[in-house]
Amino acid sequence: MAGQLGVLNALDVAKTQWYHFTAIVIAGMGFFTDAYDLFCISLVTKLLGRLYYTEPGAPKPGTLPPRVQASVTGVALCGTLAGQLFFGWLGDKLGRKRVYGLTLVLMVVCSLASGLSFGSTPKGVLATLCFFRFWLGFGIGGDYPLSATIMSEYANKKTRGAFIAAVFAMQGFGILAGGIVALIVSYAYDQKYNLPTYEQNPEASIVHSFDYVWRIILMFGSLPAALTYYWRMKMPETARYTALVAKNAKQAASDMSKVLQVELEAEEEKVQKLSQEESHRYGLFSKEFLRRHGLHLVGTTTTWFLLDIAFYSQNLFQKDIFSAIGWIPPAQKMNAIHEVYRIARAQTLIALCSTVPGYWFTVLLIDHIGRFAIQLMGFFFMTVFMFALAIPYDHWTKKANRIGFVVMYSLTFFFANFGPNATTFVVPAEIFPARLRSTCHGISAAAGKAGAIVGAFGFLYAAQSKDPTKTDAGYPTGIGIKNSLIMLGVINFFGMLFTLLVPESKGKSLEELSGENDAGADAEPEVSDRAIRV
């Protein structure tokens, strides 16, 4: 093949322009909503337990039964996994733009519907909530491969990593916003009602209008997504899809001429020649794909799977960790709304001090020190801090050492986000061919969500105390938080090992990385040699 298409080269060498920032905001607001919707549920599960499962005369307020808790926290993750596979495949078949608006509509509608969950019994309300959260997750799942692929195909090669990471970094603001919204709503209700604690007066510690609190918090997530729908629909299809997959050189040149504000030639003859090359014809299940990208796909899927076991279990049971070290008082020493406030305050502090800064450290440094180094370093420090928390766990539970525990716990979040949580999202959007890029990103992301499901469901049980008198109502004894943290440390160590299969993609064009610039079937993408040497 005689070099790269002019329109793709123009994108690769383009200076950072206004359209880059527009694309980051449009794609990023989807991720803001994704994170808000996925993580805000952990803020309200204690309230749901109090509202629907408190027994009259019980010494402690009600909690969600184990299966209900697992369903409420995990069903959106199941939907996300399915959505990543489905919309990832659809994005390569129909085009990124045509599918992009559909995922956003699904997210907005189901986010609103989650807050309108109805039923005459607690079981009915929570079954409806789970139904809508599954489809909310399905829409969120589509946003992963589509946003990453669109941003990678719009970006120049010099700052591509920072742009894709910036889209993903909006997750941090989504998690932070979830905590802030819960703080504002719970504070307003707390000031209005000023109720006694459960211990002082069980019946007076909760009022019926608190049922609106969790609904308001869940529904708020639809707002930022709805505001960006118009702009998503105005974005042109990416030139790489139009030229390399749809084989429409004229449309690709026309679209990018408007975006870049330069005249670009429609190289129709060159596009036709490209379509005959073997490097532009093999499929996902071919021997050629296995030879060129098999190890890459193993690397991106395993590292994302292992990362998300640790990341989501940390996020979803952090309220239990805060309770265990005394940051959040025992449930009976708070009223229902004050419990929401205390959980939200703890999550907001963690997000503000570690989660958000970690994402933006990645944005600033990913194109300087590279994806590989950041991912390896992130897994290494996550392993170190997990073991540092777990091995002397009894030391951290003493009142004098609680601040130290929170600092160490925050550092594991910082290095997750200034590390594999960002890079596992970036790399699959760069190293696969255009016609399979969205599909392969979807497969990698779905492996991650499989890990998240293991984290959300498995550690819900595993983190229970070994003492039967200290477990949550309805749960069997587990291995305890200390042993759970040791397990997460081991998982992070394996993530570090599997990172060795992931290639470095810094500073190269997408066609170089995927092998689409190769002259024939025997050529291999340059990046493969990098993976083999490592």
Radius of gyration: 24 Å
Cα shape? globular
Number of strands: 0
What structural class should be given to the helix and strand makeup?
Answer: mainly alpha
The first-to-last residue Cα distance is 29 Å
| Sheet of most strands | none
In percent terms, what proportion of residues is strand?
Answer: under 5%
The ordered string of helix (H) and strand (E) elements is HHHHHHHHHHHHHHHHHHHHHHHH
**Overall average pLDDT:** 87
* Low-pLDDT windows of residues: 519-534
Number of domains: 1
CATH topology: Growth Hormone, Chain: A
Q: What's the CATH superfamily, by name?
A: MFS general substrate transporter like domains
How many helices? The count is 24
Give the fraction of residues assigned to helices: over 70%
CATH architecture field: Up-down Bundle
Q: What is the name of the CATH class?
A: Mainly Alpha
Family: Belongs to the major facilitator superfamily. Phosphate:H(+) symporter (TC 2.A.1.9) family.
InterPro entries: MFS_dom (IPR020846), MFS_sugar_transport-like (IPR005828), MFS_trans_sf (IPR036259), Phos_permease (IPR004738)
Keywords: Coiled coil, Membrane, Phosphate transport, Symport, Transmembrane, Transmembrane helix, Transport
Main location: membrane
